[in-house]
Amino acid sequence: MPTPQEQEQEQPLLLDPDQETAYDETEKVHIVGIDSDSEADDAMPFSWRKLWLFTGPGFLMSIAFLDPGNLEGDLQAGAIAGYSLLWLLLLATAMGLLVQLLAARLGVATGRHLAELCREEYPTWARMVLWVMAELALIGADIQEVIGSAIAIRILSNGFIPLWAGVIITAFDCFIFLFLENYGVRKLEAVFAVLIATMALSFAWMFGDAKPSGIDLLLGIVVPKLSSRTIKQAVGVVGCIIMPHNVFLHSALVQSREIDHSKKFRVQEALKYYSIESTIALFVSFIINLFVTTVFAKGFYGTGLADNIGLENAGAYLQEKYGGGIFPILYIWGIGLLAAGQSSTITGTYAGQFIMGGFLDLRLKKWLRALITRSCAILPTIVVALMFDSSEGTLDVVNEWLNVLQSAQIPFALIPLLCLVSKEQVMGTFRIGPILKMVAWFVASLVIVINGYLLVDFFSSEVSGTIFTTVMAYNEGKEEQGRTRKISIIRSGLVLTQSEQRQY
């Protein structure tokens, strides 16, 4: 018989009823009771009904793989690299799946999400640093998502609604979110399912209009290929897959199901169904990303337009390339982009509630937390929209800076996740084993190194550009001084020698 100490180590930390929680007990989806509690996990057959009841958190998590920032990375990868980076898109999605499964494992096994565990396991200074970094990552992602929605609204209104007005319209989605929350978790998940289906249908329609090469598509997936010209797009494909706030989000979403943590086989069962559901969800997201990449690969790879395409002008280029058809492809793109932007901004608000509540242990009403979270992103987004509404190029530069901001935050989400999910005092028997731990740290290190490369490349190019601009301005100033002196000498009636004439 195990000792009390061994029994304590077998079970992860259980939830304190006096602490802030991701979901109230009355909000959770009931799972236990479909089968007899006396049955062991290995005696229970696979149940489609149970899979359906567990389905939801993974699809909400997958929306971060389909946000406007990812769509822009897809279209640029397709336009500049053609089909050659599809294998990397698949690999990056698989790496993202591993990270998200670890986040789900942490939430299911402990009954707490990542932000709560960081508050409990780390000293105050470390907790505050992690909280600030998580909030910065969330704000950066939210600005991109809100701007993406505003661009879609401008496209669908034929330019009638300016960017700043689209930002304000998008700001009100948090109130829609709060309204939907009152009807239960499953209703909210159904709305997100509709938004994902809208994206899938829109981009599949574009895929059908473009008719990309099936052979080239297959070769792009199975044959790894990378060149010096496409390295920046390759880094972007991998870098935008891991979203720091999404790690916090998924560890909280899995707690929306009622799981009896006192029974080990119930926790194992939840992990099994969540793994299946998350895999299906990210496979769907991979297909949608593949649609976008291949459409732009077919239409713009090898053309002079490839380097100039972004979210702002992609619809116009598609319209010019593929024409109207039954339904103008410009509006199909706008509908898909709007679904991506709206769904990702709402999940961003959701993640913000968990991050703020978990790190600070705030007992605020959900509507107040949502309002605070939404305000942190909307105010800077309106400033960006007002300043850069008329400049497509400047919006692309802002987007690059936001990507850099999020890249810098990735270690502050991945490292705590891997440390906690490997810790026996936190996870009990559900801590990850040595092989999985080694693989997880390798993937995390690879992602951190790739994003580090993005940071170094971005800042080195910025510094080089600044130095080049300064030198050019200095040279132009010297030339202007020389021309002015020459004119002054001529006007004074002095005669120049031949060497002096050559000098000027």
From TrEMBL:
It is a multi-pass membrane protein. HAMAP family: NRAMP (MF_00221). NCBIfam families: nramp, Nramp_1. PANTHER family: METAL TRANSPORTER NRAMP3, SOLUTE CARRIER PROTEIN FAMILY 11 MEMBER. GO terms for molecular function: cadmium ion transmembrane transporter activity; manganese ion transmembrane transporter activity. One of its GO terms (biological process) is defense response to bacterium. InterPro entries: NRAMP_fam (IPR001046). The chain crosses the membrane at residues 51-66, 86-108, 129-153, 159-178, 190-208, 234-253, 274-297, 330-355, 367-388, 408-426, 438-456. This is Putative natural resistance-associated macrophage protein. It comes from the Eukaryota. Keywords: Membrane, Transmembrane, Transmembrane helix. GO terms for cellular component: vacuolar membrane. It is found in: Membrane. The keyword Cytoplasm does not apply. Belongs to the NRAMP (TC 2.A.55) family.
